[in-house]
Protein backbone atom coordinates (compact mmCIF):
# COMPACT_ATOMS: atom_id res chain seq x y z
CA UNK A 1 0.00 0.00 0.00
CA UNK A 2 1.09 3.57 -0.70
CA UNK A 3 1.17 6.21 1.97
CA UNK A 4 -1.82 8.52 2.20
CA UNK A 5 -0.99 12.02 1.01
CA UNK A 6 -2.90 15.24 1.63
CA UNK A 7 -2.41 18.96 2.11
CA UNK A 8 -1.38 19.86 5.66
CA UNK A 9 -1.24 23.09 7.65
CA UNK A 10 1.87 25.23 7.89
CA UNK A 11 1.96 24.43 11.62
CA UNK A 12 2.05 20.66 10.97
CA UNK A 13 4.68 21.15 8.29
CA UNK A 14 6.90 23.32 10.49
CA UNK A 15 6.61 20.98 13.48
CA UNK A 16 7.78 18.05 11.33
CA UNK A 17 10.73 20.02 9.93
CA UNK A 18 11.73 21.34 13.36
CA UNK A 19 12.02 17.79 14.70
CA UNK A 20 14.65 16.88 12.10
CA UNK A 21 18.38 17.70 12.20
CA UNK A 22 18.65 18.81 8.56
CA UNK A 23 16.05 19.96 6.05
CA UNK A 24 16.62 22.34 3.14
CA UNK A 25 15.66 25.96 3.75
CA UNK A 26 13.61 25.60 0.56
CA UNK A 27 11.42 23.00 2.24
CA UNK A 28 10.18 25.12 5.16
CA UNK A 29 6.67 26.62 4.92
CA UNK A 30 7.96 30.22 4.87
CA UNK A 31 9.88 29.61 1.64
CA UNK A 32 6.56 29.72 -0.20
CA UNK A 33 6.14 33.33 0.96
CA UNK A 34 9.51 34.20 -0.58
CA UNK A 35 8.18 33.16 -4.02
CA UNK A 36 5.02 35.21 -4.68
CA UNK A 37 4.90 34.21 -8.37
CA UNK A 38 4.32 30.62 -7.26
CA UNK A 39 1.41 29.17 -5.31
CA UNK A 40 2.68 27.14 -2.36
CA UNK A 41 1.18 24.09 -0.70
CA UNK A 42 2.40 21.96 2.20
CA UNK A 43 2.04 18.22 1.56
CA UNK A 44 2.03 15.50 4.20
CA UNK A 45 2.55 11.74 3.94
CA UNK A 46 0.65 9.62 6.49
CA UNK A 47 1.19 5.95 7.39
CA UNK A 48 -1.41 3.30 8.28
CA UNK A 49 -1.63 4.62 11.83
CA UNK A 50 -2.29 8.15 10.55
CA UNK A 51 1.14 9.41 11.65
CA UNK A 52 2.80 12.17 9.67
CA UNK A 53 5.95 10.54 8.24
CA UNK A 54 7.01 12.93 5.46
CA UNK A 55 6.42 16.48 4.22
CA UNK A 56 7.05 18.54 1.13
CA UNK A 57 6.74 22.16 0.09
CA UNK A 58 5.44 22.22 -3.48
CA UNK A 59 5.43 25.41 -5.56
CA UNK A 60 2.99 25.72 -8.46
CA UNK A 61 3.95 27.95 -11.41
CA UNK A 62 1.12 28.56 -13.91
CA UNK A 63 1.56 28.36 -17.66
CA UNK A 64 0.53 31.64 -19.33
CA UNK A 65 -3.17 31.61 -20.36
CA UNK A 66 -3.65 28.01 -19.16
CA UNK A 67 -4.80 26.63 -15.83
CA UNK A 68 -1.97 24.12 -15.89
CA UNK A 69 1.02 24.23 -13.58
CA UNK A 70 4.62 23.19 -13.18
CA UNK A 71 4.85 21.64 -9.70
CA UNK A 72 8.28 22.12 -8.12
CA UNK A 73 9.67 20.70 -4.87
CA UNK A 74 13.08 22.39 -4.52
CA UNK A 75 15.57 20.19 -2.61
CA UNK A 76 12.70 17.98 -1.49
CA UNK A 77 10.41 16.40 -0.55
CA UNK A 78 11.40 15.37 2.99
CA UNK A 79 10.80 11.62 2.84
CA UNK A 80 12.74 8.37 3.36
CA UNK A 81 14.77 8.49 0.16
CA UNK A 82 16.60 5.22 0.79
CA UNK A 83 13.35 3.27 1.30
CA UNK A 84 13.28 0.20 -0.99
CA UNK A 85 9.62 0.93 -1.78
CA UNK A 86 10.19 4.52 -2.96
CA UNK A 87 7.15 4.28 -5.23
CA UNK A 88 4.91 4.19 -2.12
CA UNK A 89 6.05 7.74 -1.42
CA UNK A 90 6.16 9.23 -4.91
CA UNK A 91 3.16 7.63 -6.67
CA UNK A 92 0.53 9.31 -4.43
CA UNK A 93 2.38 12.61 -4.83
CA UNK A 94 2.05 12.40 -8.62
CA UNK A 95 -1.67 11.54 -8.35
CA UNK A 96 -2.27 14.49 -6.03
CA UNK A 97 -0.32 16.98 -8.14
CA UNK A 98 -1.99 15.86 -11.37
CA UNK A 99 -5.39 16.43 -9.74
CA UNK A 100 -4.19 19.96 -8.90
CA UNK A 101 -3.58 20.68 -12.59
CA UNK A 102 0.16 19.97 -12.76
CA UNK A 103 1.45 19.05 -16.24
CA UNK A 104 4.98 18.31 -14.98
CA UNK A 105 6.65 17.68 -11.62
CA UNK A 106 10.22 18.71 -10.76
CA UNK A 107 11.95 17.73 -7.53
CA UNK A 108 15.45 17.72 -6.06
CA UNK A 109 16.15 14.65 -3.92
CA UNK A 110 18.40 15.75 -1.00
CA UNK A 111 20.59 12.70 -1.59
CA UNK A 112 24.41 12.94 -1.76
CA UNK A 113 26.08 10.91 -4.53
CA UNK A 114 29.80 11.76 -4.28
CA UNK A 115 32.26 13.81 -2.25
CA UNK A 116 35.69 15.27 -3.04
CA UNK A 117 38.06 16.40 -0.29
CA UNK A 118 39.61 19.87 -0.53
CA UNK A 119 42.88 18.19 -1.52
CA UNK A 120 41.17 16.24 -4.31
CA UNK A 121 39.54 19.41 -5.67
CA UNK A 122 42.87 21.29 -5.61
CA UNK A 123 44.54 18.41 -7.44
CA UNK A 124 41.78 18.40 -10.07
CA UNK A 125 42.13 22.16 -10.62
CA UNK A 126 45.89 21.76 -11.05
CA UNK A 127 45.51 18.87 -13.51
CA UNK A 128 45.40 20.31 -17.08
CA UNK A 129 43.57 17.17 -18.23
CA UNK A 130 40.67 17.71 -15.81
CA UNK A 131 37.96 19.82 -17.42
CA UNK A 132 35.16 19.09 -14.95
CA UNK A 133 34.92 18.09 -11.32
CA UNK A 134 32.53 15.26 -12.18
CA UNK A 135 35.32 13.60 -14.19
CA UNK A 136 37.82 13.69 -11.29
CA UNK A 137 38.19 10.71 -8.96
CA UNK A 138 35.87 11.20 -5.98
CA UNK A 139 37.11 10.75 -2.41
CA UNK A 140 33.88 9.02 -1.34
CA UNK A 141 30.90 7.44 -3.10
CA UNK A 142 27.44 6.99 -1.61
CA UNK A 143 26.11 3.67 -2.99
CA UNK A 144 22.53 4.32 -1.87
CA UNK A 145 22.38 7.36 -4.14
CA UNK A 146 22.84 5.22 -7.22
CA UNK A 147 20.13 2.84 -5.97
CA UNK A 148 17.78 5.82 -5.59
CA UNK A 149 18.63 7.01 -9.11
CA UNK A 150 17.91 3.54 -10.56
CA UNK A 151 14.54 3.36 -8.78
CA UNK A 152 13.57 6.82 -10.04
CA UNK A 153 14.38 5.88 -13.64
CA UNK A 154 12.36 2.68 -13.33
CA UNK A 155 9.40 4.77 -12.16
CA UNK A 156 9.64 7.06 -15.20
CA UNK A 157 11.46 10.02 -13.67
CA UNK A 158 13.97 11.80 -15.91
CA UNK A 159 17.20 13.28 -14.56
CA UNK A 160 17.83 16.90 -15.51
CA UNK A 161 21.15 17.48 -17.23
CA UNK A 162 23.87 18.91 -14.92
CA UNK A 163 23.51 22.41 -16.34
CA UNK A 164 25.25 25.00 -18.43
CA UNK A 165 28.96 25.38 -19.11
CA UNK A 166 29.59 26.96 -15.71
CA UNK A 167 28.10 23.98 -13.89
CA UNK A 168 25.04 25.74 -12.47
CA UNK A 169 21.68 24.24 -13.40
CA UNK A 170 18.58 26.31 -14.09
CA UNK A 171 17.16 25.12 -10.75
CA UNK A 172 19.17 24.40 -7.61
CA UNK A 173 22.92 23.65 -7.67
CA UNK A 174 23.92 20.01 -8.05
CA UNK A 175 27.45 20.70 -6.79
CA UNK A 176 28.02 22.50 -3.48
CA UNK A 177 30.87 23.00 -1.04
CA UNK A 178 30.40 22.08 2.62
CA UNK A 179 32.52 22.19 5.77
CA UNK A 180 31.64 19.37 8.21
CA UNK A 181 31.28 20.67 11.79
CA UNK A 182 29.92 17.58 13.53
CA UNK A 183 32.24 16.40 16.32
CA UNK A 184 34.77 19.18 15.62
CA UNK A 185 35.82 22.01 17.90
CA UNK A 186 36.21 25.53 16.55
CA UNK A 187 39.97 25.03 16.85
CA UNK A 188 39.70 21.91 14.66
CA UNK A 189 37.78 23.87 12.05
CA UNK A 190 40.30 26.72 12.15
CA UNK A 191 43.18 24.25 11.68
CA UNK A 192 41.36 22.93 8.62
CA UNK A 193 41.56 26.33 6.89
CA UNK A 194 44.41 26.69 4.45
CA UNK A 195 47.31 29.04 5.16
CA UNK A 196 45.91 31.76 2.92
CA UNK A 197 42.59 31.80 4.81
CA UNK A 198 44.30 31.92 8.22
CA UNK A 199 46.66 34.65 7.04
CA UNK A 200 43.78 36.71 5.61
CA UNK A 201 41.73 36.40 8.79
CA UNK A 202 44.66 37.69 10.84
CA UNK A 203 45.25 40.46 8.31
CA UNK A 204 41.61 41.61 8.57
CA UNK A 205 41.80 41.63 12.36
CA UNK A 206 45.02 43.64 12.31
CA UNK A 207 43.51 46.11 9.81
CA UNK A 208 40.56 46.70 12.15
CA UNK A 209 37.78 45.05 10.11
CA UNK A 210 34.68 44.64 12.32
CA UNK A 211 31.99 42.13 11.39
CA UNK A 212 28.57 42.87 12.87
CA UNK A 213 25.08 41.41 12.58
CA UNK A 214 22.64 43.61 10.74
CA UNK A 215 18.87 43.84 10.49
CA UNK A 216 16.16 44.64 7.98
CA UNK A 217 17.29 48.28 7.93
CA UNK A 218 20.74 47.18 6.68
CA UNK A 219 19.44 45.36 3.60
CA UNK A 220 19.95 48.44 1.34
CA UNK A 221 23.67 48.48 2.26
CA UNK A 222 23.87 44.78 1.46
CA UNK A 223 22.01 45.34 -1.79
CA UNK A 224 24.34 48.08 -3.03
CA UNK A 225 27.28 45.69 -2.67
CA UNK A 226 25.27 42.84 -4.19
CA UNK A 227 24.56 44.84 -7.37
CA UNK A 228 28.27 45.69 -7.65
CA UNK A 229 29.12 42.00 -7.20
CA UNK A 230 26.60 40.98 -9.87
CA UNK A 231 28.21 43.30 -12.39
CA UNK A 232 31.69 42.06 -11.51
CA UNK A 233 30.80 38.34 -11.53
CA UNK A 234 28.44 38.54 -14.51
CA UNK A 235 25.10 37.43 -13.11
CA UNK A 236 21.68 39.09 -13.12
CA UNK A 237 20.87 40.48 -9.64
CA UNK A 238 17.57 39.82 -7.92
CA UNK A 239 15.52 42.93 -7.03
CA UNK A 240 15.94 44.43 -3.57
CA UNK A 241 12.32 43.57 -2.76
CA UNK A 242 13.24 39.87 -3.00
CA UNK A 243 15.65 40.14 -0.06
CA UNK A 244 13.23 42.27 1.95
CA UNK A 245 10.51 39.67 1.39
CA UNK A 246 12.96 36.87 2.22
CA UNK A 247 13.93 38.53 5.50
CA UNK A 248 10.31 39.25 6.54
CA UNK A 249 9.03 35.76 5.68
CA UNK A 250 11.88 33.70 7.11
CA UNK A 251 12.44 35.63 10.35
CA UNK A 252 8.67 35.59 11.03
CA UNK A 253 8.85 31.79 10.99
CA UNK A 254 12.01 31.68 13.15
CA UNK A 255 14.02 34.72 14.30
CA UNK A 256 17.26 32.84 13.54
CA UNK A 257 16.19 31.45 10.17
CA UNK A 258 17.97 34.31 8.35
CA UNK A 259 20.85 36.50 9.50
CA UNK A 260 22.67 39.38 7.84
CA UNK A 261 26.34 40.12 8.46
CA UNK A 262 28.29 43.23 7.45
CA UNK A 263 32.05 43.79 7.44
CA UNK A 264 32.93 47.40 8.38
CA UNK A 265 36.26 49.15 7.98
CA UNK A 266 36.81 52.80 8.87
CA UNK A 267 33.12 53.61 8.57
CA UNK A 268 32.60 51.84 5.25
CA UNK A 269 30.76 48.56 4.57
CA UNK A 270 33.11 46.46 2.44
CA UNK A 271 31.29 43.11 2.43
CA UNK A 272 27.96 41.64 3.46
CA UNK A 273 26.43 38.17 3.50
CA UNK A 274 23.24 36.35 4.46
CA UNK A 275 23.14 33.16 6.51
CA UNK A 276 20.25 30.69 6.70
CA UNK A 277 19.69 28.06 9.38
CA UNK A 278 17.36 25.06 9.57
CA UNK A 279 18.11 22.65 12.39
CA UNK A 280 21.79 21.71 12.31
CA UNK A 281 22.34 22.84 8.71
CA UNK A 282 23.67 26.36 8.10
CA UNK A 283 24.02 27.95 4.65
CA UNK A 284 26.03 30.90 3.44
CA UNK A 285 23.28 32.08 1.14
CA UNK A 286 24.16 35.36 -0.63
CA UNK A 287 27.44 37.24 -0.51
CA UNK A 288 28.42 40.69 -1.71
CA UNK A 289 31.54 42.83 -1.62
CA UNK A 290 33.13 45.91 -3.14
CA UNK A 291 36.38 45.99 -5.10
CA UNK A 292 37.66 48.71 -2.77
CA UNK A 293 40.07 47.88 0.05
CA UNK A 294 40.27 44.21 -0.85
CA UNK A 295 43.67 44.14 0.84
CA UNK A 296 42.00 44.19 4.30
CA UNK A 297 40.32 40.84 3.46
CA UNK A 298 36.69 41.54 4.50
CA UNK A 299 35.40 38.37 2.79
CA UNK A 300 37.51 36.02 4.90
CA UNK A 301 36.60 38.03 8.00
CA UNK A 302 32.87 37.76 7.36
CA UNK A 303 33.01 34.05 6.55
CA UNK A 304 34.98 33.26 9.69
CA UNK A 305 32.51 35.19 11.87
CA UNK A 306 29.61 33.30 10.24
CA UNK A 307 31.38 29.96 10.74
CA UNK A 308 32.00 30.79 14.40
CA UNK A 309 28.36 31.72 14.93
CA UNK A 310 27.19 28.61 13.06
CA UNK A 311 29.35 26.47 15.34
CA UNK A 312 27.89 28.21 18.39
CA UNK A 313 24.40 27.42 17.08
CA UNK A 314 25.30 23.72 17.04
CA UNK A 315 25.61 23.33 13.28
CA UNK A 316 26.72 19.96 11.95
CA UNK A 317 27.57 21.43 8.54
CA UNK A 318 28.41 24.86 7.13
CA UNK A 319 27.24 24.98 3.53
CA UNK A 320 28.79 27.36 1.00
CA UNK A 321 26.08 26.40 -1.53
CA UNK A 322 26.81 26.17 -5.26
CA UNK A 323 30.18 25.73 -6.95
CA UNK A 324 31.13 25.50 -10.59
CA UNK A 325 31.79 22.06 -12.06
CA UNK A 326 34.05 23.55 -14.75
CA UNK A 327 37.75 23.56 -13.79
CA UNK A 328 39.27 25.39 -16.76
CA UNK A 329 41.23 28.58 -16.03
CA UNK A 330 39.05 30.54 -18.43
CA UNK A 331 36.02 29.92 -16.20
CA UNK A 332 35.26 33.18 -14.35
CA UNK A 333 33.83 31.22 -11.39
CA UNK A 334 37.02 29.27 -10.71
CA UNK A 335 38.28 31.93 -8.31
CA UNK A 336 35.15 31.50 -6.18
CA UNK A 337 35.71 27.73 -6.11
CA UNK A 338 39.32 28.25 -4.98
CA UNK A 339 38.09 30.58 -2.22
CA UNK A 340 35.63 27.98 -0.91
CA UNK A 341 38.20 25.17 -1.16
CA UNK A 342 40.41 27.19 1.17
CA UNK A 343 37.91 26.56 3.97
CA UNK A 344 39.13 22.96 4.10
CA UNK A 345 35.74 21.37 3.47
CA UNK A 346 34.58 19.11 0.69
CA UNK A 347 32.84 19.35 -2.66
CA UNK A 348 29.54 17.48 -2.64
CA UNK A 349 27.50 16.22 -5.57
CA UNK A 350 23.78 15.68 -5.07
CA UNK A 351 21.56 13.57 -7.32
CA UNK A 352 20.42 16.71 -9.08
CA UNK A 353 16.90 17.55 -10.16
CA UNK A 354 14.40 15.11 -11.68
CA UNK A 355 11.31 15.62 -13.84
CA UNK A 356 8.15 13.59 -14.28
CA UNK A 357 6.12 14.69 -17.32
CA UNK A 358 2.41 14.26 -16.55
CA UNK A 359 1.58 15.81 -19.93
CA UNK A 360 4.43 15.08 -22.36
CA UNK A 361 3.38 17.73 -24.90
CA UNK A 362 3.28 20.58 -22.36
CA UNK A 363 6.45 19.32 -20.66
CA UNK A 364 8.30 19.34 -24.00
CA UNK A 365 6.99 22.83 -24.75
CA UNK A 366 8.32 24.05 -21.39
CA UNK A 367 11.71 22.46 -22.07
CA UNK A 368 11.87 24.22 -25.43
CA UNK A 369 10.93 27.55 -23.85
CA UNK A 370 13.56 27.19 -21.11
CA UNK A 371 16.29 26.28 -23.62
CA UNK A 372 15.63 29.50 -25.55
CA UNK A 373 15.67 31.87 -22.56
Automatic annotation (TrEMBL):
Superkingdom of this protein's organism: Bacteria
Record PROSITE patterns: FEMABX
Keywords of this entry: Acyltransferase, Cell shape, Cell wall biogenesis/degradation, Peptidoglycan synthesis, Transferase
Gene3D superfamilies: 3.40.630.30
InterPro entries (UniProt xref): Acyl_CoA_acyltransferase, FEMABX, PG_Glycine_Bridge_Synth
Alphabetical list of Pfam families matching this protein: FemAB (PF02388)
Record family assignment: Belongs to the FemABX family.
Protein name, per record: Peptidoglycan bridge formation glycyltransferase FemA/FemB family protein
